[in-house]
Structure formats: C-alpha cells, structure tokens
Specification:
325 residues; alpha+beta; four-stranded antiparallel sheet; 12 helices; 11% strand; flat
C-alpha cells in the first residue's frame, strides 16, 4: 500500500517487544530462512509508531482517536502489552463524555480494556449528557444494555432513560432495533400518568406490542405497592424495582476514606470549574491547571504561576474565562 515500508530492526528487541513476533522469528531461525517478516495487511507507519512507543517515545499532547485505534489494533494483534499500557496511560486522562461513544465502539476489540471500563463508567455517571452526543446512537446494543444494567447509571428520572433508549432504537432509518433492551428499562419507577399516556406512544404504532405488556405490569406493580413489599414480576426485568443513581454526590464512595486528592496542585486552590470531562483549577499563585475528571490526573497547565491569584473560573462559549485579584 501507499503506507508500506521496510523496517530494519534488531530481532532480539522485537522478541522482547512481542511474544507473537518472537515466535515468528524463532520459526525463521529454525528453518534457516531469511530473517524477513512480511505483514502485508499492517500499515507500516502504524507499526513503526507502535515500536517507537515500546522504546519509550511519548505521544504528542493532542492525540487523534483514529490513530489511537490503529495503534491499539496493532499492539493487540502482536500482544505488545507495554504499548497497550502506554496508549491507555495517555488517552484515559484526556477522555471526555463527547468521545465516550466512539471509544466504546472499538476499545474492547483492540485490547484497551481499562480505557473501555473508564469510558463505560463516565458514560453511566453522566448518562444524560452522554445521550446528547453524536456518538451515542453509534454504540452497539450490547454496550447500551450494559449501561442500562449498571446501577451507577445516573439520571434524574426513568422517563429520561426510556426516551434516550427510544432515540437509540429509532436511529437506523427504516428499522427499529433493540427489542431486548426493553426488559432493562425500569418502568415501575416512572410516574403513573407518563406510563398511561406516553410510554407506549414513544414507539411506532406497529411496534406498540413490544412495550404494552411491560407497561401493563408496571402499572399493576405500582398499584400493589407499598402494601406488598415483595412483588413477583413476569415480564419486567429483574432490576425493574431498583432505583438508579441520581446526578449529584455519590456519598457511598466516601465511606472509609474513599476521597481522592487532585494531583499536580502546588498552591491553595481558590476556584474550580468543570468542562468537557476536564476539571479546571485556579490557585493562589495564579496558575490554572487542567485535570482529567475520569482519573483526577494532571493533564496540562494553562498558566504556570504569576502574581495574581485566580479568584474565578467560568466556562463560556467554548472559552475558559479567568478572573484575578
């Protein structure tokens, strides 16, 4: 291809880098053939970058997700565990809700399991924000199902969860998808008026039967409570009566010293703002530092100290506005 190239490198180092390459090299030695490995379906530049990462070269500050996907695919194929770790170490602090859907479509298949877990957790904790991103409708049914099963999914109401799922179901023109997801919706948590007037009407009339039985049982469950503490359901899912998390502080995370400290802060912090998955802090020494909301790790410094204390930070029209005194 136009991206093919010949790489000359030390076979011993290749063997250390990848057990897959080591096996291929040993086969060449035992056969006493030319020590040449051909990978006609691997992009040469991507393979070279993967080797550079293994040798300790760092990513550029801004990383293109398409490049990350290609690198991860090569690293996973050749079992370059150190390269996979380097990719995740770089990408996770930069992860934000806006790209969670895109990341979830390929991170698991390319061996980035830790990145996938962080993206799932972020999508669940900020579900209402996540469903407004362009990539939400591109995730597959299995991923959405896992999110719906997660008690950590945070939403102000089950009605909002249902409407998000309907949006996903209708995203492919001409075909309604995801019928099995309906059993993961916790219909009894919706208000009675919504169940009677809107829940079924959210789906096209020809598919109303998908949800009618679930809504009917949800209404029976609501009518029976609170007289009966234990209610047997037939068509509703096993988690139908379990309340989800709501936006705000999850206090159980702070039991037995569960608090975490922000890294990379040298002076007293006077103000904090949040934007696109990043935490922005303003300090007494005038510095403005950016940390990943997902990991709390320091990502970059916009202003490294000065004479004026940062008294306020505001996010407005894509800009971070700071006030000093």
């Amino acid at each position: 291809s136009s991206e093919s190239k010949i790489l000359r490198t030390n076979s011993f180092l290749l063997s250390l880098c990848s057990p897959v390459l080591q096996k291929m090299i040993l086969e060449k030695v035992s056969e006493k053939t030319e020590k040449r490995l051909d990978f006609l379906d691997v992009d040469g530049n991507t393979f070279a970058k993967a080797l550079d990462l293994w040798c300790g070269r760092e990513f550029d500050h801004e990383v293109d997700l398409r490049e990350v996907r290609q690198l991860a695919s090569v690293a996973n194929r050749f079992q370059m565990t150190d390269v996979v770790a380097a990719i995740e170490e770089t990408i996770i602090p930069q992860l934000c809700v806006g790209v969670c859907g895109e990341v979830l479509t390929w991170s698991g298949d390319t061996g980035l399991k830790q990145l996938e877990e962080v993206a799932m957790r972020l999508a669940a904790e900020r579900f209402e924000e996540f469903v407004r991103t362009e990539s939400f409708v591109s995730i597959d049914e299995k991923i959405l199902g896992s999110l719906l099963d997660d008690d950590g999914l945070s939403a102000r109401s089950e009605e909002l969860v249902w409407e998000a799922v309907v949006l996903w179901m209708k995203a492919k023109e001409g075909k309604l998808r995801g019928r099995e997801l309906l059993h993961k919706i916790r219909f009894p948590l919706m208000c009675e008026e919504y169940l009677r007037s809107k829940a079924v009407a959210m789906l096209p009339a020809e598919h109303a039967d998908w949800v009618e039985g679930l809504v009917e049982e949800a209404l029976r469950v609501k009518a029976a409570r609170p007289e009966h503490t234990s209610i047997e359901t037939k068509v509703l899912g096993p988690m139908a009566l379990v309340r989800r998390a709501t936006p705000g502080v999850t206090w159980k995370k702070y039991v037995d010293g569960g608090e975490r400290r922000l890294e990379g802060l040298k002076e007293d912090v006077y103000t904090v703002a949040e934007c696109e998955g990043q935490i922005c802090t303003g300090s007494a020494d005038g510095s403005i530092r950016i940390l990943s909301r997902a990991t709390l790790h320091h990502v970059r410094t916009l202003r490294d100290g000065g004479r004026d204390c940062v008294g306020a930070l505001v996010v407005w029209s894509g800009r971070l506005i700071s006030g000093h005194h």
